[in-house]
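Hey, can you fold this one?
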Amino acid sequence: MGRPGPDPSTRDVVLRDVTEADLPILFDQQLDPEANRMAAFPARDRDAFMAHWTKIMADESVRQQTILADGQVAGNVVCFGPPDDREIGYWIGRTFWGKGVATRALLAFLVQVEGRPLYAHVVSDNVGSIRVLEKCGFTVARRVTEFFEQRGEEVEAVILKLDANDIPTA
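Sure. Predicted structure:
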């Protein structure tokens, strides 16, 4: 399976360290009801969001990056968890959906993150996110049914895995 070429609708996707100045933009992005439904993840109020990111930014075991698309904050990508069970997560602002931003950012991020395996946890109807992960070398490891508070029901989720042999190239 070949790697995707550059998406002409987004000329420049780069990663950099998360700064406090990014947080208001990331906060607004996570308020999007459609994104919350797709991710099956509830929005946080401002205080909870800021406390969460203050903790993340202070935790040296968590790798976090701001995603910039054509110089604008497009979202974030993180890697967290114990060394043998680390997970990847990302959030892309809706105005950047469908432009290759998530794929390009995740490919660049995975080159920076040492150690495998890595996991990603996605609700099964979030086909866009599953596709991004598959383009970046993740494969479906298993399917589980879990209760997602955001949706108020049990939902099938997909656990995807990136093995040691699957080293992406940006």
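The chain has one domain: 13-162. Let me know if you want another pass with a different chain boundary.
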